[in-house]
Each structure stands twice: as structure tokens, then as C-alpha cells.
Design brief:
heterodimer, A: about 600 residues, alpha/beta, Glutaredoxin, Rossmann fold, Ubiquitin-like (UB roll), 5 domains, four-stranded mixed β-sheet, 24 helices, globular, B: about 120 residues, alpha+beta, 5 helices, about 40% helix, about 15% strand, binds flavin mononucleotide
Chain lengths: ~600, ~120
């Protein structure tokens, strides 16, 4: 490999790619050539660096200059100034990193200060399509150690000692899962990776696969050695084309180096991997449904036991772990289980990756030690809600989880604490809601999702979630009845207790948790026929604020159903019987003289 | 198939070229190791710096290599990046100068002015 004086790292994760980062990369290559720097400066395409809200991101080393919101037309200036003359283009740097007389290092800015990157250690730093770069940062060193110095029992003990728990939702201790499978005797066993990532708003696993695919491949190989399996499958949704492509490249490079296949690193251990594409059904993230899907059957769950560790893929002992769970494995072997267990809380060790989304300034990917408070994540790292709006709640665990209201902002994030609040860790989607979000509508949104995604195999989920959705729709349309809350609670309890798989068992959670913290909003919808947040269209009426109306008549001209009347220079009136609540008048009024309530 | 020794070799070789990207909060010392730098004696300078850093157990300091910085007549060139400070470029560095740079600048935060490019220009 050549020695370059500068490294231009361009994010080619899904977020920045959709913001045209490939064009930026091409412009860099062109400009660099134009200035004859191609022997001195290298352009690398990387995975996600986290701060998606400000993408495309470009980082230039050795200065570690962090350029944000880069446009293709900015490239010429960066090359001319930074790469040719050695002068950082301050105007284009991430504004947070620029102080009057100095430039902060990336680790000093608020977004990164509290983060600890274990699972995301290589994301944004290496070119994921070049196995040598992964190897350079200690890649395949853990595997070498495991294969040459450790017995399978020692491997499992190490994982157990680290305290690592599954990052896919339930938080089951990973070492114990491996131990069960290792004790199931069979010639043939399997190692699976769950990259289905179906939670709306979640993109942690996608980012790991896009930015550091070898970390998952290496960990799965270690898992294979631990339980005695020689074949693995990565189940990834087909909607993740960049992740699928990088995985395919990584697998073939690993085979070429003899890191997958027969006699790995000259030992007598064999292990190989294949990718299986999922069609994007949420239920296929459930382990037994995922296994059925890989087998070529319809993706439907089955009752457990038998657990996959005993009877899994093709009836053989199988372990299934989440992408992020695997991404934590190699560092545990390189730094020791004690190191891993030193991070986090008593029962939740290590870090957790969250995808921050919704009403938050710094939309993106963050990795924090377990035990960090919700307040730190929302305000210090996430930068709070945009436009000075008030934080209302954050949804964790997606459609299986619940919300954390402002009154619990100081909760330390770990598995137990979130459950105690009626939510759950989930796979790491964290959707922030502000004062403009209606919590009944949020519950309706998630139920709408589960009704869509219910596979229909068991009645409580197929029929029960539909009934709950109907009640919620009724409430948001102003047709709620006094008994509806009680009906929701009864249905929720019954579905939780009787559904076949986790999808149905957890489907009522968004309702139960919004009822727990925002019951008054339900009551306002039902009794007063009002939506306090101003979201549910049927419960809103648009009115002109007399004092602010200047009588310009723009609203009347724009109204598609001509329900606004008045004379120029007088106060206009909206006829609420004819109003279809499209909101055009409100957006067009130059004097903000129309309100909805 | 690659043996563990071959993988180690790939690691060592690739790390030399990309270590500058490791973004720690501490100090980065970058040595120009293109043909011009090596011809002027950059390798013993690099080794001396690594040695000194190790000897003094300086945590959070990474020593990285880089390509041609474009001022071949001033090689060996060593750049020091300390968090929040302007980059300092030392020129015509030799082993003795390297020891002083580590001890005074990296350990104590005092730039060794007389070795910097600014002093050379005068
Ligand atoms: C409806 C449903 C969807 C799920 N979706 C996912 C998913 O997308 N990704 C995931 O890793 N686990 C998902 N799970 C959890 C898996 O069943 C399983 O617990 C997990 O993959 C185990 O890996 P872990 O122990 O490493 O977390 C889902 C579970 C249910 C019930």
C-alpha cells in the first residue's frame, strides 16, 4: 500500500449517500488529479460516522478536520485550500467544532464527547471494502487468538464473564445462549445473524454492516468455533442494498485470505458464511420466523420450546444473535472481558448504539455506555428538540416498546430501568417527540404498523391488534366513548398473555405506556373531543384571531372549498361546517392570524 | 490461505499507512515517510520518536507516518498535532532533535521553536 500524506474520508453510509456523497467523492478524485496530488492524497469511502443530520460528512486526516453539510461544489475549494495549501476551510467545518481562536478535536464536540465507540469502532475510519484496513486495526486478531490459544469452553466463559447481553431487543445473556448450543450434541450446528432490523426509525445494524462488515464475520466465526458449527447465515433485509453489497465483498475477501472456509488460518477449523435476503417483514426478525424464512418457508413463528439452541435451523442446534451483539465480540477478546464489564451498570454491561430520530437536532447514530441518562442523550448529545420546542417523550423499543416522558429524563439507560418504566431497550431506535406530537396518535401509528405486520398465525395478534387499532382510530376521530380506555386495557392484557410470539405479546406496549403517562390526552380526546397537541384533524377547528387579521383576503383566495368569507380590510371568518381542515389558510396567512385548536 | 504471520505482516504494513486516522483525543506525531523523507533519514527519526514515547510511557500519543508533505528539501519533517492547538511543523529533524521534541513539546507542551519551519525560513 502507498503512503499518503492526507486521507480524505467520505461517508458512504445510506444517509450521506442519499445526500449525494458519491458525487462528492468523485469530485474529490477529479480535483486531486487536476492538482497532481493523486500520489499524495487518498480518497476513501467509509461507513457511517453518526452525525447523519449534518451529512454529507467528509473528514480529512491527519488534521482530523470534520467537514459537514458538504456540497459537490465545495470540493474545489477544499482541495485548493486544505490539500494544496494546508489551510483548513473553516467556513465548511462542523460549526460546533470551531471556536473563535481554535478548532476543537472531534472528540471534544458535544455530539461525540460522551460517546464510546465499541461496536462502531471502525465505522467512518476504514474503507469497509478493503479487508487490509480492517486487519490493520486489529481485525482477525481476536479470531487468531481464539483458534490458537483457547478452547471452546474458554471462549464461552469469556463471553459470559464480559456480561454481554443481546442487543436485538430481549437482552438475553449471549454467553449463556452459546453455552446452551454448545451443549446440544449434533454433527451439524448453525450460527445465524439477525440483520432484519424492522423497527421503524432504526438503522444501527445497517450502519455496522455498511461501515464494518468484517467485525460481524469475524465474530460469527468465533461463535462457530465456540458452539461447534461450521456454517452460518446472515439474514439481512433486501432494502439494505449497500449493506448487502459490502457484506458480499467482505465475505469473498475473507474467503480469499482463508479467514472463511476450510482450515482457517492453518488450523483444522472450518467455517463458512452465506447471506440470505429477507423481504422486509417485521415478524421475520423474530427468531423462529427468521429460521423458517431461511429454510424457504413462510416467515411465521412457532411456539418455543424447543428453543433454537436445541432445535433451530433445519432442525439443528442454532444460535441467533443480533448484528450489534456480534460487533461487540472481538473487542471483548482483544481487551479482556473485565474491560467490557467495567463499562455500564450492574446488570447491563458495555455500550449501546441508538439511532436518534424524530424531533431532535442531531439526528444520527450514537454509541453510549450503558447507564448514560436519557437527558444526556437527548440534550447533550442530541442537541434537544429543534425550534426551541418542548421535549415530550422518547419512544424506545419501537412498536414493541413504550415512551419515556420528560419526568423520567434522568433515568440511567439500561435493560432493567427501561422495562421498569414500561418501555424496553429494544434494538436501539430512539424516536423523540415534542409538544406537537399527540400521544394517542403515536399509539395509533405503532398499532397501525403491528396490524400490518402481524403474520396472522395466532388469533390474539391477528384479531386483537386490529380491534385495538379500531378503538384508537375512533378516539382520534372524535368518536371515542367513555368505556374505550377500559376496553383497551382489557384487550392489551389478554393479547400480552396469549399471543404466540413477541410481536403480539409486545404490541400493546405503546398503548399501555402512553396510557400510563398521558392518560389525560386520551381523556381530552374522548370527553372534550379535543386534541391538545393539535394533531388529530377531526378534532381541530381553524379560526381567525381577530386582533391579528389585517383583512388581506389571502386566506379566502387560497381556500379550496371557499369556506372563508369577508371583505378586504375587515376580519375574515372561517365557516367550520364547510372547512375540510386542509390547513392551507394557516400556512398562507402572512400575519399568523389563523390558529388551529 | 494466509497464515497468522502473514496476517501480522498485512496488519503492520497497512497500519503504517492508515494509523493517522485513529482519532484519539491525544497528541498525534506524524513523520513524513515518502522516498524523500526516508532518503533524508526519516526512519531513524521515526524509531527514535516511538522509542521515546514508549520509554516515557506517554499514553494517548500516536505516532503515525505520512507521505510526501511537499517540501522535500526540508526533510525529515515531523508534524505535531496537539488537541486544540495549531499544527507545528519541525524540519530537518534528526535523532537528537527528535528526543528534544518528544521531551519538551509532547511531554511538557513547549514548542521547540528553533527546529520549526518558521525558524528555518528566517
Ligand atoms: C416481532 C419481532 C421482531 C424482531 N426483530 C428483530 C430484529 O429486527 N433484529 C434483531 O436482532 N432481533 C429482533 N427480534 C429479536 C429476535 O427474536 C432475537 O431475540 C434476537 O435476534 C436475538 O439476538 P440477541 O440475543 O443478540 O439480541 C425480534 C423479535 C420479535 C418478536
Amino acid at each position: 500500500m502507498e503512503m499518503y500524506r492526507s486521507h480524505v474520508m467520505i461517508c458512504r453510509g445510506t444517509g450521506c449517500t442519499s445526500a449525494n456523497s458519491e458525487q462528492i467523492a468523485k469530485n474529490f478524485e477529479e480535483e486531486i488529479k487536476k492538482h497532481g496530488l493523486e500520489k499524495e492524497v487518498v480518497v476513501e469511502r467509509t461507513g457511517c460516522f453518526g452525525l447523519c443530520a449534518l451529512g454529507p460528512i467528509v473528514i480529512i486526516y491527519p488534521e482530523a478536520s470534520f467537514y459537514s453539510l458538504v456540497k459537490p461544489e465545495d470540493v474545489e475549494e477544499i482541495v485548493k485550500e486544505h490539500l494544496v495549501k494546508g489551510r483548513v476551510v473553516k467556513r465548511l467545518l462542523y460549526a460546533e467544532s470551531v471556536e473563535e481562536d481554535r478548532i476543537k478535536s472531534i472528540n471534544e464536540v458535544d455530539f461525540y464527547k460522551k460517546q464510546v465507540r465499541v461496536a462502531l469502532r471502525n465505522c467512518g475510519i476504514i474503507n469497509p471494502e478493503n479487508i487490509d484496513e480492517y486487519i490493520a486495526f486489529d481485525g482477525y486478531k481476536a479470531l487468531a487468538k481464539v483458534l490458537t490459544e483457547m478452547t471452546p469452553v474458554q471462549v464461552i466463559d469469556t463471553v459470559k464473564k464480559s456480561g454481554l447481553r443481546g442487543r436485538g431487543g430481549a437482552g438475553f445473556p449471549t454467553g449463556m445462549k452459546w453455552e446452551f448450543a454448545s451443549k446440544s450434541h449434533n454433527e451439524q450446528k448453525y450460527v445465524l445473524c439477525n440483520a432484519d432490523e424492522g423497527d421503524p426509525g432504526a438503522f444501527m445494524d445497517r450502519s455496522v454492516l455498511e461501515g464494518d462488515p468484517h467485525s460481524v464475520i469475524e465474530a460469527m466465526t468465533i461463535a462457530g468455533y465456540a458452539i461447534g458449527a461450521n456454517q452460518g447465515y446472515i439474514y439481512v433485509r433486501a432494502e439494505y442494498p449497500i449493506a448487502v453489497k459490502r457484506l458480499a465483498i467482505a465475505i469473498s475477501q475473507a474467503r480469499e485470505y482463508g479467514l472463511l472456509g476450510k482450515g482457517i488460518m492453518g488450523t483444522n477449523f472450518n467455517f463458512d458464511l452465506e447471506v440470505r435476503l429477507g423481504a422486509g417483514a417485521f415478524v421475520c426478525g423474530e427468531e423462529t420466523a427468521l429460521i423458517a424464512s431461511i429454510e424457504g418457508q413462510r416467515g411465521m413463528p412457532r411456539p418455543r420450546p424447543p428453543f433454537p439452541a436445541v432445535k433451530g435451523l433445519f432442525g439443528k442446534p442454532t444460535i441467533l444473535n443480533n448484528v450489534e451483539t456480534y460487533a461487540n465480540i472481538c473487542p471483548i477478546f482483544l481487551n479482556g472481558p473485565e474491560w467490557f464489564a467495567s463499562m455500564g451498570t450492574e446488570k447491563s454491561k458495555g455500550t449501546k448504539v441508538f439511532a436518534l430520530g424524530g424531533k431532535i437536532n442531531n439526528t444520527g447514530l450514537v454509541e453510549i455506555p450503558m447507564g448514560t441518562t436519557m437527558r444526556e442523550v437527548i440534550y447533550e448529545i442530541g442537541g434537544g428538540c429543534p425550534n426551541g420546542k418542548k421535549y415530550k417523550a422518547a419512544q424506545t423499543g419501537g412498536p414493541s416498546g413504550g415512551c419515556i416522558p420528560a419526568s423520567h429524563l434522568d433515568v440511567a439507560i439500561d435493560y432493567e430501568n427501561l422495562i421498569a418504566l414500561g418501555s424496553m431497550m429494544g434494538s436501539g431506535g430512539l424516536i423523540v417527540m415534542d409538544e406537537d406530537n399527540c400521544m394517542v396518535d403515536i399509539a395509533r401509528y405503532f398499532l397501525d404498523f403491528t396490524v400490518d405486520e402481524s403474520c396472522g398465525k395466532c388469533t390474539p395478534c391477528r384479531e386483537g391488534t386490529k380491534r385495538m387499532l379500531e378503538i384508537l382510530e375512533r378516539i382520534t376521530e372524535g368518536k371515542g366513548e367513555e368505556s374505550d380506555i377500559e376496553k383497551l386495557e382489557t384487550l392489551a392484557k389478554n393479547i400480552k398473555n396469549s399471543a404466540l410470539c413477541g410481536l403480539g405479546q409486545t404490541a400493546p406496549n405503546p398503548i399501555l405506556s402512553t396510557l400510563k403517562y398521558f392518560r389525560d390526552e386520551y381523556e381530552a380526546h374522548i370527553r372534550d373531543k379535543k386534541c391538545p397537541a393539535g394533531v388529530c384533524q377531526a378534532l381541530l377547528s381553524y379560526t381567525v384571531i381577530d386582533e391579528k387579521c389585517k383583512g388581506c383576503g389571502i386566506c379566502a383566495k387560497q381556500c379550496p372549498v371557499s369556506c372563508i368569507s369577508g371583505q378586504p380590510k375587515t376580519v375574515y371568518k372561517i365557516n367550520s361546517d364547510k372547512c375540510i381542515k386542509c390547513g392551507v389558510c394557516m400556512t398562507k396567512c402572512p400575519f399568523k392570524a389563523i390558529e388551529k385548536k | 490461505m494466509k497464515s497468522i504471520q502473514e496476517l501480522e505482516e498485512i496488519r503492520r504494513r497497512t497500519l503504517e499507512t492508515i494509523n493517522v486516522r485513529k482519532d484519539r483525543s491525544g497528541t498525534r506525531v506524524v513523520v513524513g515517510m515518502a522516498t524523500c523523507g526516508i532518503a533524508a533519514g526519516a526512519r531513524p527519526v521515526l524509531l527514535t520518536i516511538m522509542d521515546e514515547v514508549k520509554k516515557n510511557s506517554l499514553a494517548d500519543v500516536i505516532v503515525a507516518q505520512t507521505g510526501c508533505i511537499g517540501m522535500c528539501r526540508l526533510e525529515p519533517i515531523v508534524e505535531v498535532y496537539r488537541p486544540g492547538e495549531e499544527k507545528v511543523t519541525y524540519v530537518k529533524v534528526n535523532e537528537g532533535k527528535a528526543i528534544r521534541i518528544v521531551n519538551e513539546h509532547i511531554r511538557q507542551g513547549k514548542v521547540v521553536e528553533e527546529y520549526t519551519i518558521g525558524a528555518e525560513d528566517k
